[in-house]
Write a structure and sequence with these properties.
The radius of gyration is 22 Å and the shape is globular. The protein is α/β, with parallel strands linked by helices. The chain is built from 16 helices and twelve strands. A seven-stranded mixed beta sheet has the order 2-8-7-6-5-3-4, sandwiched between helices. The longest helix has 19 residues. 44% of the residues lie in helices and 12% in strands. Bound molecules: pyridoxal-5'-phosphate. Pyridoxal-5'-phosphate (PLP) binds next to helix 5.
Length: 409
């Protein structure tokens, strides 16, 4: 078990918790099923406060989601029995795809067994059709995007991270009549930066490009009903395909694309990572559906996450700890050295019972090592303060350069 909610359950009273947050923490408390991690090598049980979980909204512990999964297990058992095309199709898959298409305002959606296979499979197909498509891809795009584009065989141009001027330069230099395809993420997984989506949409219109936006670190967390950053900016309809995961904000497992029916059908027909693999268990689809539906009607988790992220940003700024971006809930504290980063992670764990993973190469380039901190909706204000205080102590002890020291270089 990996969750900081354990610490609430033992220590805090509901009165400590403010406003909207109280209600869903109460729900979590009532369901009472949060074992604690054994943190210490001496075998003494102690609680671990987790600060690097992608279950950003705590939906993996949401009682309604758990109940939906349990009910589906009772009805359908634990496996799907086959691929979607051969024996592994279930009512819950179909309902979930309808819900996701509706969430994103698209004609259709298609489920995959993970966000990774959704990107890899659909980009292999979409970027490779027609054959002479030119692809324009952000330099910080995820490995699954890179693999999909590689497998498509399309000619690829990489634009500097979030640099729309560079993107435009590359688009303008390409033959006017070549089919063009732009791929970007909305929230970047390691830096926490947010893409200039409106400008990307503008360039796509100008150059007639198809667009594919990975909203893996945004769905559930941003936008009306959790539809993501493009929806938050009111421009989801300007992107051809929105891609998402069910494994982060929605707290379960699986990935998907949502877009025009014809494109989704092409992916359904040709994407090898869709066709040649066993589908998600019906119980997972049922749980994911409950999670999506819950987050379409509840803002409490989104608000709590945003509040915690903002508070952590402000505390780290006061402590002069450098981090990469204030754009999103992903707070990447910049260490810039492999051994120091691992040591910082180890000390946080040993001294404070805080788990935050050090991120080293190949996830980030050598010399850009970070502690990728993920505050969540189920942390509270005191947790955030304790975390920032602990991090500050470790920063000083290991003599990690402060933000001002880095600026002065
Ligand atoms: N896209 C991005 C930007 C990611 O960060 C990740 C995983 O972290 C994925 C896709 C893959 O998603 P999943 O974990 O559901 O396979």
């Amino acid at each position: 078990m990996n969750h900081h909610l354990a610490s609430y359950l033992s220590g805090q009273t509901a009165d400590d918790l403010a406003g909207s947050k109280r209600e869903f923490l109460e729900i979590g408390r009532k369901s009472g099923n949060y074992p604690m991690a054994s943190a210490r090598r001496d075998g003494v049980d102690s609680e671990v406060s987790v600060w690097c979980s992608n279950d950003y909204l705590g939906m993996g512990q949401n009682p309604q989601v758990i109940a939906a999964m349990q009910a589906a297990v009772d009805t359908h058992g634990v496996g799907s029995g086959g691929s979607r095309n051969i024996g592994g199709n279930n009512h819950h898959h179909v309902l979930l795809e309808k819900e996701l298409a509706d969430l994103h305002g698209k004609e259709a959606a298609l489920l995959f067994t993970s966000g990774y296979t959704a990107n890899e499979g659909s980009l292999t197909v979409l970027a490779g059709m027609p054959k002479d498509t030119l692809v324009f891809s952000d330099a910080k795009n995820h490995a699954s995007i890179i693999d999909g584009l590689r497998h498509s065989g399309a000619k690829k141009f990489i634009f500097r991270h979030n640099d729309v001027a560079h993107l435009e330069e590359l688009l303008a230099a390409a033959p006017a009549d070549a089919p063009k395809f732009i791929v970007a993420e909305s929230v970047y997984s390691m830096s926490g930066t947010v893409a200039p989506l409106a400008q990307i949409a503008g360039l796509a219109d100008e150059y007639g490009a198809t667009t594919f936006i990975d909203e893996v670190h945004a769905v559930g967390m941003y936008g009306p009903q959790g539809a993501g950053i493009a929806a938050q900016e009111g421009i989801a309809d300007r992107f051809t395909v929105i891609m998402g995961t069910l494994a982060k904000g929605f707290g379960t497992i699986g990935g998907y694309i949502a877009g025009p029916a014809a494109l989704v059908d092409a992916v359904r027909t040709y994407a090898r990572s869709f066709v040649f693999t066993t589908s998600l268990p019906p119980s997972v689809a049922a749980a994911a559906l409950a999670s999506v539906q819950y987050l379409r009607s509840s803002d409490a988790e989104r608000k709590a996450l945003a509040e915690n992220a903002r508070y952590l940003h402000s505390l780290l700024i006061s402590a002069d700890i450098p981090f990469l971006s204030t754009d999103s809930h992903i707070v990447s504290a910049f260490v810039g050295d492999d051994d120091t980063c691992k040591r910082a992670s180890q000390l946080l764990f040993e001294r404070h019972g805080i788990y935050v993973q050090s991120i080293n190469a190949p996830s980030v380039p050598t010399g850009e090592e970070i502690l990728r901190i993920a505050p969540s909706a189920v942390h509270d204000q005191t947790d955030v303060e304790n975390f920032a205080h602990a991090l500050h102590g470790i920063w000083k002890e290991l003599n990690i350069p402060t933000a001002s020291a880095r600026d002065a270089r």
